[in-house]
C-alpha cells in the first residue's frame, strides 16, 4: 500500500507526465466478454433495489468531501451507528487467547480433563480432618501440572501472536472504512476496496486471487466510468467525496451489490458489481497502481468472513483417555465404597451389647470423634468414603498429563529439527506450531489438500510436442521418473533432476521451458521434412494468447504476464524456438521470427481482429489475425475432445498418430492441447464479424450463446498442426508421496478453486487419476440448468419446462422434474423459473449421486474417481443429500472437488470429519485454505511464497507437500506409538502402586491409614518413575525411520487404533493389579518373621512400606527396560537416575527431623540398609512381578504379532544375516514386503499396474480429454 489520501502533500510532478504517457497500451480487444462490459442499470436493477434493506445496510463515506457538516448533523441514529461499526479496525488475529481471556480459557482447557477435576476435589478434602496425608503433599502435584501446562499454552500462543504481526505492513492496521488508498504493482490489497481508477486509461487492472481461490490466472477488474474519468491522479482526490451503500459483510467471494453516489454529480447513483470489488489478500499485477475506497476492514472482509474461529482441538487419544480416567474413577469409587462398607462393619463391631470390645484399641473407639464412633457406624462409613477417595487417588495418574505435555513439546522440537524435512532453497524447516496433536499425525485416515501451491509449484513447463505426426522433446516428467523408480530403471530412476540432465553446457535453464530436442532447437527445425508446418505451429504459440510482454529496460530481457501459467509456457517456448513475442498494441502483436529462407530473425506484425476466449464449455481458444500480406487466419488451440471433431477430414493426415502421442503424454501426466488453423476468406470473415459484433453488443441473457454460435461458424474444417504437452509442474516428490500415502491406506481428496479441466490434469500428474480409471463427474453444466438459472422462460420452455403430452413414469414434468415435486402448476412454473432452477439443480445432483452409487456398488475390484464442481457441491452439502454424497465419495479411490469456495472447503472437511468419525488432515498454502485447515482435526500449512495465512492458522507447517510423507509415516507413527505406550505404562505403574495401598487397607480393616509416607507418595510420579517414561515418549522407536517408509502398511496401526484399543488398555490395567498382588504378598511373606534391628525387633509399618515401595520402583523401571524397543543412553540414564533418586530420598528424607520425615525417620539408615534380606527381597520380588508380562510378550510376538512386531523380526534377522542370499528369512521378508504394498487404486503403483494390464490385454485406451463415466 503506497499510502492514503493526504499522505503525500507534495506529489511527484513526474506522476502527471507518466499519467499522460500511459495510453500506450489499451487492451479493449483483450477483455473477456463477460468481464469487460461495464455494468448497466438494467443489469443491476434488481440488486440495487435491495440497497437499504435487510443485509444491505452498510453506508460508507469515502473521501474528505463525502458529506457536508449539515448532512452529518442530519444523520439518523441508525446511520450513525452503521458508520461507527464501519470504522472498525483493520487488524486481524489468529491467536487462541488474549490478555483478558487467557486465564479463564486456559483454566477451562485444563479442567476439561477429568483427572484434574478429581484432583481438585481431592485437594479440597486434603484441607479437612478427613485427609489421609498432609494437604501440601496433596495440592503440590496439581499446581505443578496446571501451571506448567498453562505456561506451555501461553508460549505457543505468543508465537502465533508474533507471527500475526510479522507478515503485515504496519500501516494496514490503521486503514479505516471510507479511506482512499493507493495500491501499487505487486502489492496486496489491505482491505476490501471499491476500485475507483487505475493507471490504465480505461480504468482496468489485473488481480491475482491465488490466496483466495487458488487460481494463478489473472482476473480483470474495471472501475466505473463515473469515477475513473474524474480521478486520474493523487491531487484529484483532495476534493473527492462519495457515499457508498452496499451489502453487509458476508462470505460470498464472487458477489457484491451496492451503489455509489459521487459528490457534485447531482445525486446520481451508479450501480456497483463484483467487477469493481478488490478483495483483501489478492495481489495487484501488471498494473502500476490503483485507487480504491475501503468498504470492509479486518474481520468484515470477505476473506476473514470465510475464516473460522480458532478452534480448540483435542486429539482422539486424549478424548479416549478421558474415558479411561472415567473407568479408573469408577473403579476408585467401587473400591472406596467396598472399603467404606467393611470399615462401617468393623466400626460397628467395636461395640457389642452396648459395651466396647476394644478390638481396635489403637483407634480408641471409646474416646473418638464421629469418624470412628461405633454408635454412628453408618456416618463414619460415609466419611471414610471421602477419605478413601483421597487415599486411593494414585489410581488416577495426575502426572500423566504433564508428562505427556513435556513429551509432546520435545517431540515437536524433534519435528522442527528434522533435517530431512528442511527445504534448503527457501531456508524453511518444518514447524510444529502446536504440540497438542502430535499423536493425531499417526492416525490420519483422510487428507484434504488444496492444489495450487500445495501440490504444484505454480509453474508450467513446456516439455514435449507432436508436430505433423512427429514427436519432439526428450524431457522426463515427474510421473515418468516416479514410475521408473518403481520399475528400477537405471536410466531414469537415478536422475534426481531431469532439468540438469538434459541441460546443455553453458546454457542457463529457462523457467517454463524444459524442452530438449536437437532436431528443432537452435533453428534446426528448418531442416525437418515438415518445416512449413513447424513454422505455423510455433507462430500459433506466439500469437494465440492474451499475454502481455514486459521488457526489462536494463537487460532487454522479455518476460510475460499471462492469465494462466500454461499460456506463459507456450509463449516462452515459442521464444526459445525462434518466435519471440515482444510487443502488443491495441490491435496487433509483433514477433521476432526466424525466417526459414534467410535463416535470420525478422520482425513481423499480425493484426488481431478478434479473440474467442477460452472457457470450460468451449474448451478452446481462437484468435483471428491478418498478416502483413493481407491474409486472414484463424489460429485455434484446445482440448482434443473438442478439437478433433472440428478438424477437416481431408487435410488432417496425421490425426491418428497425433492421438497416439496425446495418449502417451497423458500417461506421463502431461497436460495436452491440440493446435489447428485455417485460412479465412474475406466474405466468410465479414459475415462472421457482423454476427459476432451483434452478439457482443447484446444485453440479453443468451448473450454467451449467441457469441458461441457466431464463433462456431469459423471453428470448423480446421487443419491439424499437432499437439503440445506441458507439465503442470508438481512440487518435487509429489507423485511418490501420494503413492506412499495411498499404500499406507490414507485417502486423498483434492479441494481446489480451480477449473475442472485443470484439476483433472493435476490429478493425472500426481497419479490420483490414471488412464482406465472410471470417473464419476457430477456437474450442473447442462443446457437445461443453465437456461433455468438465467431465468429465461422462453429458453427454459425450449428445453422442456413444460413437457406437454409427455409422460415420465405416469407423471407430468416441469423442467424435467415431476410436477408434484415442484409444487407449481404450469403457469406458476413460468412465473418462477429461478425457484425451479434451484429445485431442478438439487434434483439433478441427487440423481447423479444415486447413479454414481449404483455404478460403484455394481462393480467389483474397479477403482472410481469422483469429480464434482462447486455449483453441484452446494447442493451435495445440503442436509438431505450430504450423507449420500459422503457415501459415494468414500466408495471412490480419489475425490476432486473443483471450483470450491473457502467455505465449501471447510464444509467438506467438516462432513468428512463428522461423517466418518476418522482423523482428517487438511493441507493448503493460502488464505482460501484457512477454513478447512481450522476445521480439520489437523491443519498443515505450506510455507509458500504467497502469504502466510495458512501457516498462521495451521497446527504444523512444512515447506513442501512431499514432507507430508515423513511427517505422517515416520513422526506420526512414532508419536502415536510413543503416546499410547506412555498412557498404558502410566496406567500400569499407578495401578500397581494404588492396589498395594488397597490391599494394605484390607489388612488394617480399612481404617484410612496410608501404607506409605505422604511425601514418598507425592514423589512417586514426579521423581522416581517419571523420567524413564518421558524418555520413552521422546526417543523410543518401535521401527526405524527407514522401515517406516519401506513398509507404509505399518501406518495402519494408527487409523485402526490397534495400539490403544480397550483390550490393550484393560490388559495393562490387569497387569498392574497382578504386579501389585505379587509385590505386596511376596514382600509381606518374605519379611514376616525377619528381625531388622539388633534388638530383634520385627518389621513395622514404615519398614514394610519402604520395602514394598522399593520393590515397586524397581519393578516399574525394569518394566520400562523390557517395554522400550530402542534403547539410548538417555533412556538408560533416566531409568537408573529414577532408581537412584529413591535411595537418595530414603537416606536424606529419613535423616530429617521426625516432625518432617514422620514415619520414615532413619528408616533406611537404621532398618533397611544393613539388612541383607531387604536387598534380596528388592532384587527377587520385582523380577517375579515381571514374569507375567514377559511370558505374554513372548507368546504374542511369536504367535500373534502386530505389524511392528513383524518388521522388528525382519530387522533383527537382517542384522543376524546381512547377506540377503544366505538369510533364512528371505521368503518371510519377501512376503512382508508384498504385504506392505497394498493394492490401491491411486498412486504411481496403481498407474504402473494398470499400464501392465493394458499391455497384457493388448488394449489401446484413447484419451479424449480424460476417460469419463459421467453420471448425469
Automatic annotation (TrEMBL):
It is a multi-pass membrane protein. Keywords: ATP-binding, Magnesium, Membrane, Metal-binding, Nucleotide-binding, Translocase, Transmembrane, Transmembrane helix. GO terms for cellular component: plasma membrane. It is found in: Membrane. Residues 88-131 form the P-type ATPase N-terminal domain. It catalyses: ATP + H2O + phospholipidSide 1 = ADP + phosphate + phospholipidSide 2. Residues 1-21 are annotated as: Disordered. GO terms for molecular function: ATP binding; ATP hydrolysis activity; ATPase-coupled intramembrane lipid transporter activity; magnesium ion binding. Residues 951-1202 form the P-type ATPase C-terminal domain. Its EC number is 7.6.2.1. GO terms for biological process: phospholipid translocation. ATP binds at residues 450-452, 567, 614, 637, 671, 752-754, 899, 905, 928-929. Its cofactor is Mg(2+). Pfam families: Cation_ATPase (PF13246), PhoLip_ATPase_C (PF16212), PhoLip_ATPase_N (PF16209). The chain crosses the membrane at residues 138-155, 323-346, 377-402, 986-1003, 1015-1035, 1065-1084, 1104-1127, 1134-1152, 1172-1195. The active site is at 450 (4-aspartylphosphate intermediate). InterPro entries: ATPase_P-typ_cyto_dom_N, ATPase_P-typ_P_site, ATPase_P-typ_TM_dom_sf, ATPase_P-typ_transduc_dom_A_sf, HAD-like_sf, HAD_sf, P-type_ATPase_IV, P-type_ATPase_N. Signal peptide: none annotated. Mg(2+) binds at residues 450, 452, 925, 929. PANTHER family: PHOSPHOLIPID-TRANSPORTING ATPASE (PTHR24092:SF175), PROBABLE PHOSPHOLIPID-TRANSPORTING ATPASE (PTHR24092). Belongs to the cation transport ATPase (P-type) (TC 3.A.3) family. Type IV subfamily. This is Phospholipid-transporting ATPase. It comes from Dichanthelium oligosanthes. The lineage of its organism: Eukaryota, Viridiplantae, Streptophyta, Embryophyta, Tracheophyta.
